[in-house]
Amino acid sequence: MKLCRFDDDRLGIVLGEEVADVTDLVTAAAPMHPWPVPLGDWFISNLNKMRPRLEDLSKSSPKKNLASVRLLSPVANPGKIIGAPGNYRDHVDEAKADAEIHRGNLVMTIEHHGLFLKANSSLVGPSHGVPLRFPNRRTDYEGELVVVIGSTCSGVKDTHALAHVAGYCCGLDMTLRGPEERSLRKSIDGYTVLGPWLTTADEVGAADNLMIRLQVNGSTRQSCSTSSLIHSVSKVVAYASTFYTLHPGDVILTGTPAGVGEVRAGDNVELSIDKLGAMKVAIYNW
Ligand code: MN
User: Fold this and answer.
1) How far is C-alpha 277 from the geometric centre of its chain's CA atoms?
2) Ligand 1 centroid vs 2 CA: distance in angstroms?
């Protein structure tokens, strides 16, 4: 199943070139929680339970043309957004060469850096685009496979990690270059773009051989299979869960392959991943 959020917080099921609007079912089921709300994204927490009714409703619910809707982040309220630094050998090598030239932050592997967190307020969908707050400094795109956690887990073994994955989507881990901590430079509003929709894990199968393609203004900049991940999806989930409990809706950006580069206002970034669809994202000045 392919689930999208669109327009004014509508929930849709993507059926070919159309979106079936299933919002009513979700708003009817969503509890009005007293403060404080439990950790995790309510919809992702309840996705498996609601799935048969969502599929039923999608047959009769109103449809819109997919091309006519504004796509939002498919996950509304992740508890945390986790990023992986160097997780493709070719990107670690290019970043190392670049850091020596620019005296920037060195990108090393997960063994060295571990993982990092991005502010939830950085999360947007493709229709929002990426506003550059610091147009005089360099901002880079990083196209990445994104894992969305489906059920709570902690200290899970990699052999069992995929059982806790709800699905996958495309992600842009936008990065302001410079000396500050990663978590600050990557947490600017709009610097985490998820889309075009969440494809449930059963439709994806093993996510370890999907082509990631990123274009800027129609020219290919990144083209790499997730088979080149140093730490596979299951290993990244397991590793993250040794440090913190993962909750439904938590998002893990699994790292970017080689070909990272700068964007400027007016650029259009298109990211596509096999089985997960393609998203177009505009870059503009804040
Ligand atoms: Mn990244």
Assistant:
1) 13
2) 24
If you measure from the C-alpha of residue 123 to the centroid of ligand 1, how many angstroms do you get, rounded to a whole number? Answer: 14
Ligand 1 center to 282 CA (angstroms): 19
pTM reported for the whole predicted model = 0.96
**Residue for token digits 């439904």?**
248
Distance 214 CA to ligand 1 centre (A): 13
Q: Taking a C-beta distance cutoff of 8 angstroms, is the pair 157, 235 a contact?
A: no
Contacts of 236 (CB under 8 A, 6+ apart): 84, 87, 110, 115, 147, 229, 252, 254, 255
**Residue 34 Cα, ligand 1 centroid: separation in angstroms?**
36
- Could you report the per-residue pLDDT of 151-192, keeping only the tens digit for each? 999 999 999 999 999 999 999 999 999 999 999 999 999 999
Q: How far is the CA of 42 from the centre of ligand 1 (A)?
A: 26
| Ligand 1 mean position, distance from CA 163 (Å) | 24
